[in-house]
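Writing this down once: the sequence line spells out the residues, with the fold written below as integer tokens. This is how one looks:
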Amino acid sequence: MKFQLEKTSSDSKARCTKIETDHGSFNTPIFMPVGTNGTVKTLSPVELDDNNVQIILANTYHLFLRPGDQLIAEFGGLHHFMDWDKPILTDSGGFQVFSLTDLRKIDDEGVTFQSHLDGSKHRFTPEATIQIQRNIGSDIMMVLDECTPYPCKYDYAENSMKLTVKWAEQSMTYWQENPSSLGINQALFAIVQGSVYDDLRQKCAEKLIEMNFPGYAIGGLAVGETAAERNRVANNCTDLLPEDKPRYLMGVGLPEDILESIELGIDMFDCVIPTRNARNGTVFTSNGKLIIKSARCKSDKKPIDEECDCYTCSNFSRAYIRHLFNSNEILGLRLATLHNIHFYMQLVREAREHIFEDTFVSWKKKMMEQLKSNEKTMVNEK
């Protein structure tokens, strides 16, 4: 993986970078749609490409359970299996495993868990998760970490952070000693943990930086903490993390959260929000969220967003899409998802343009005000 820092804002930490992988390059700031099972729900790879998606995220835990990483390897990796020729990032499965509170047991060497599908028992170790991701053939792999809950007591967060550092070191060793059997150069990112405790985050970051990973993620956020806590932690972490390496904030999220985090120096984002919300009938617009299933859209001839040029907004009215949802037609889910993905990709692309023009902060302020426009209406509709 090659990394290039192209531009930093003069009045914030917002920055533009370029990251090159074996399956092409992508520009940051970037949002990665979540393709949990090797598919971004309801959309084809062609539609993702048409909407300027440059990289997607796939889930190690889910792909390990079904269809199995060995089967994916037999097809030459996930790119071939799902017919996607652009970069893929895989998480380690840690978040999914640790969310199975009643179905897993953690020890110093890894975690034993029961499948949420059939109850079968499995074990993830730092080495095992790297090998699974080797078989999947992703361009960027994540180390196994423990994602702490919120709220979290200091002692628990400290022990969890130490375990995350230990596992990161084991992951790095296995990654270096066991190259890809698929012939793919795969980068490995470490994950900074420590809950909302600044001293623990600093200790974790410093130890991981010493190991010289190709990239760094900030994990354990977007799990219930306040926006102020999240921003403080992210800001402190980007002060510590190397300028010449990618910075990835895991699991964030809403358009306004992405803009705030870009200003703090974050490069990469992922979240299920745009796709999951779309399937539930909530779409994102330049004026904030819109519940497309609401009564006010019943005879509305306008597109979802009059400022959007996606396929959905170029061809269909709010009234028609509402009709599709109320009739349980699959096309409604597809059109809403397509719009949300287009909106997110447009948002980060415009952010990049304004960073290059050195107008990001003023543009972000304007966007944040616009994104709040529909809030009162949303409250009334609930």
About this structure: The longest helix spans residues 330-356. The radius of gyration is 21 Å.
